[in-house]
Structures are given as structure tokens and as C-alpha cells.
Amino acid sequence: MALLKFLPVLPLFALLFVLSNNGVEASHKIYLRYQSLSVDKVKQIHRTGYHFQPPKNWINDPNGPLYYKGLYHLFYQYNPKGAVWGNIVWAHSVSKDLINWESLEPAIYPSKWFDNYGCWSGSATILPNGEPVIFYTGIVDGNNRQIQNYAVPANSSDPYLREWVKPDDNPIVYPDPSVNASAFRDPTTAWRVGGHWRILIGSKKRDRGIAYLYRSLDFKKWFKAKHPLHSVQGTGMWECPDFFPVSLSGEEGLDTSVGGSNVRHVLKVSLDLTRYEYYTIGTYDEKKDRYYPDEALVDGWAGLRYDYGNFYASKTFFDPSKNRRILWGWANESDSVQQDMNKGWAGIQLIPRRVWLDPSGKQLLQWPVAELEKLRSHNVQLRNQKLYQGYHVEVKGITAAQADVDVTFSFPSLDKAEPFDPKWAKLDALDVCAQKGSKAQGGLGPFGLLTLASEKLEEFTPVFFRVFKAADKHKVLLCSDARSSSLGEGLYKPPFAGFVDVDLTDKKLTLRSLIDHSVVESFGAGGRTVITSRVYPIIAVFEKAHLFVFNNGSETVTVESLDAWSMKMPVMNVPVKS
């Protein structure tokens, strides 16, 4: 559950940027006076066309996604009374394809003594008998004391799961005296080893992030293990933990309880201090109930991320209908609270992504679910388009404000790659991107896309690669730079970036960007590095948005192939007919 947010601990550039822009932050704060200020009018400018959004008001964390009796269910944190955080309930929508959605009444809302002050984030588990159970965090008093509760369907034969019941034997987990009761939330999907079920609950002790482990035989009486599954000094509060297995062979997903020699495990946590997430891949010792990250991975806020941009409070689930693991993530707004209230909405859920282990075993790979391609309509192509230094070529014939773009760049040589400054090894990739933006001439790069661009380039959001030559190998940087995205005021416009672990033997790099009015989701090198930016152009909107390919490096780059599609609007949160 994303709670009260103060100034986040950010890389150098982002910290300076926030301080120099009137304290506008990518994260949210609590504004009591605005929480129940009803929305009278919803502005369409910057609303997404094919990303998940309710008709109005505030949303945040995706909760307990699941597949049940032929329907995908998405629960999410929602304020039914306003466009800022507050009055949180578990909103509920269903879909047959993860793209077209129908809305239902909220599944969970404050109604009992054990959640009267709030129903916060949690997860869903499908029991062996096929019935779902929701675990969630309840707030019991004005001191923000947090406990864990469960809810079950009133009618499990209803595939829509329209009504949920909170049994009277709640709560199921209390914080004992050794636990910080105001930092004890977001229970995970349960998994079973032998006869015992397990769940994790995120917490902290001073500045140590903790994933507390609880066990149960009957799924109702839960007992705290003697030690956490894992904890890391200096990482602060662990929100929205997620723990799941991935296969060492192939791309298929696994049920959360699967173990064995052909499996690795992933632990993801959302860091309240930094407003980023990180994950590790490692070994789960079932006998000791301990998780050991691979020694080669950074186990801290500088570690691997699903997404190096605006992406938080993510949750995965296993989809048994297609044997895949699907990742949901939330993107907050990057404008001001007043702007959110003026437009009548805030927050989107990003396109669900399939996630699996890279064959190297070093990281996860991600890709938008295949169902998204149903929305592709008019297609335009570029083939073997040379991009000399300083060139930008428009991709015409599509709706550039609402598009799906898939491009392969090739280059004849790596010889012109710029030297990688050893000092950069101590910096976040974001800071390197801030120094080496899209306009600064390079050797091999910068090259990529200019998305949501105005015709004369007063506004544009570049998504691009730069290739550097380090002492022992080439390093590839992927950037999504919002600094030039808008002439509007009061906006948080950071450059986001991540390094791409990719083999350049074939001298090619691929990029896919999902462009949707105020969001650009970009997948570099087949999903090895992913970056999401939220942007708010004031010129490059609707039909005045343009798309370009560009190169500002001295090495000529070829657009070997580019396919761009205008994207249709799906059915989005139309009420289910009773």
C-alpha cells in the first residue's frame, strides 16, 4: 500500500530536479481537505486511450489479480470520492482478455472494527478446492495500526465474484510487540510447502526492510516464523512484497507453490524510501524457510528493477489458462495535485506484462501480453531507412498519440561507441542519461524515437539508446527523457534510464514503445530493460502529436524495420450488466 510520501531518496539528478521545481513529486501525499472533494467534470486531455483507468477519481496499487472461472479479476486501490488519495476501497473490474474491462461494485470497503480506518493492499490466493481468498491490510485506529484480514466470496459459483464477505474470525494476523505496527502491511499470495501455507508481510525495523514470514495449516490460524524470509539493512519500509517461482527452462509461468530443482525464486519489494522497486533472483530453502539472493546481484535499492521509470506497487499472478505469470504495475501522475483535481482523475494501471526468466538466469524478461495486439488497427512501416547524424524522420499515417511502435535498429560497427567514463560506474543510469541526453552528439547514439512530439519539436519525449565502450565490454544505455516533454508548468519531468544487458554481436537493438497520450512504456532489447514515463504535452496532444525516428550520433544507424500501429480504444470499465 502506497502510504504518505515525503521527498523520496532519489539519484542525484532527480533530487535536484524535484528541489528546483517547487517540490513537485512523482509520488503522492495525503491531502485531507481534498480527499472527499467530488469530481464534477472529467477532462479528457491526457487521459489514456487503452490503459486501465476508471471513469474518474484516484487509483493506486493493483491488488490481488487472479483468474477465476474464465474471467480475469483486477482489484485496485480506489478513492470513490475524489481525485487524491483517501477513502480507499478495493475497486473491482473483470475481463475476458486483460484488455476490455467491465466494472463491478467495490469488493472490499471499510465496514468492520478490524478495517474501519482503511482497507489497504493485499493479494489473492486460489485454494486447492478452486476457491479464492483475499488477504488485505486493515487499519484499526487513528494511530495507523495495521493488521491482516481475509475475505471470501459470498457465492463462489459466481464467476464475477460480485460480493465478498469478511468472516467474524478476523483478523488473522496481529503485529506482535517486536513488530512496528504502523509498518506492517501488504500480505502476499500464499504458497504451500508440505502441509503448511506461507505468506509474507512487508515491514521495517528502523531502516531495515523486512519480509516477515507467517505459516498456517488451515489458512485461518497463522503463526509468525522465528525469522523473516529475508531482510536488508538500509532499505527502509518494504511495501507490496511479491515472492514467486520462475522456471529455469522455457517461458511458461508457474503456480506460486511450485518448487524443485528446475526453479528459481524472485523476491520483489517496493521501497517506500525511494519510490522505486527492486527484485532479486535466488534460492528458496524450503526447509529453513530462507531466501538467498544470488551473490552476483545487488540486494538493495540499486538492484534490478522491473521498470526504471514511473512504476510502483506491482503485483504478479499465475494465469493457469495460458500457463504464464502476469505482472501488473501502477503509474502515478507526475503533475500537481491541483492539476489532478482539475482534470478529475489520477493514476493508471500499466499494460499487463508477461514475465519470465532470461536464459542467462541473471534477470527477468517482460513483454506486453499478446492480447494487446487485438487493439492494433492501421499499420505503417519503415524498412531500411538510413539515419545519418542529425536526421529525424517522421513516421506518418498513424495516430501518434495512441500507438504501438516496434522497431529494430542496426549499425555497421561498434567502433564509434563513446568511452564509458569510469566515474559513471558510481552513478545511477538516470544520472548518466541526464548528462548525455538525446540532443548531445555522440558516437553510436543517441538514436531512437521521439514520441508525443509537436510538429516543430517544441515538445517531445525521446526514448533512445546510447552505446559506450567500457574497459571490458560495451555498455548500452536506454533512456526515456521527459525533460523536453512539455512546455507546461508545475510538472515533474525527469529523465529515466537503465543499462541494458544485451549481446551486440549482431549489431542490432530493438525497441517497442506503447504510446498513450500521457504515458510511454518502452521495452528495450526484447524486454531486458523497461522504462515508463508520464508526460503532459500541451501542444503535442490528440491529432497534433507526431512520431519520429532520430539519430544524433556520428555513426549512421539504419531503421532495419519499423512497424507502427494506431491503437483502438477497448471497452473500459463499463458496468457489468446484472
From TrEMBL:
This is Cell-wall invertase. It catalyses: Hydrolysis of terminal non-reducing beta-D-fructofuranoside residues in beta-D-fructofuranosides. Its main location: other. CDD domains: GH32_Fruct1-like. Residues 371-566 form the Glycosyl hydrolase family 32 C-terminal domain. Residues 1-26 form the signal peptide. InterPro entries: ConA-like_dom_sf (IPR013320), Fructan_Metab_Enzymes (IPR050551), Glyco_hydro_32 (IPR001362), Glyco_hydro_32_AS (IPR018053), Glyco_hydro_32_C (IPR013189), Glyco_hydro_32_N (IPR013148), Glyco_hydro_beta-prop_sf (IPR023296). GO terms for molecular function: beta-fructofuranosidase activity. Gene3D superfamilies: Exo-inulinase, domain 1 (2.60.120.560), Glycosyl hydrolase domain, family 43 (2.115.10.20). The keyword Zinc does not apply. It holds the Pfam family Glyco_hydro_32N. Coiled coil: none annotated. Residues 51-368 form the Glycosyl hydrolase family 32 N-terminal domain. PANTHER family: BETA-FRUCTOFURANOSIDASE, INSOLUBLE ISOENZYME CWINV1-RELATED. Keywords: Glycosidase, Hydrolase, Signal, Vacuole. The lineage of its organism: Eukaryota, Viridiplantae, Streptophyta, Embryophyta, Tracheophyta. Belongs to the glycosyl hydrolase 32 family. One of its GO terms (cellular component) is vacuole. It is found in: Vacuole. PROSITE patterns: GLYCOSYL_HYDROL_F32. GO terms for biological process: carbohydrate metabolic process.
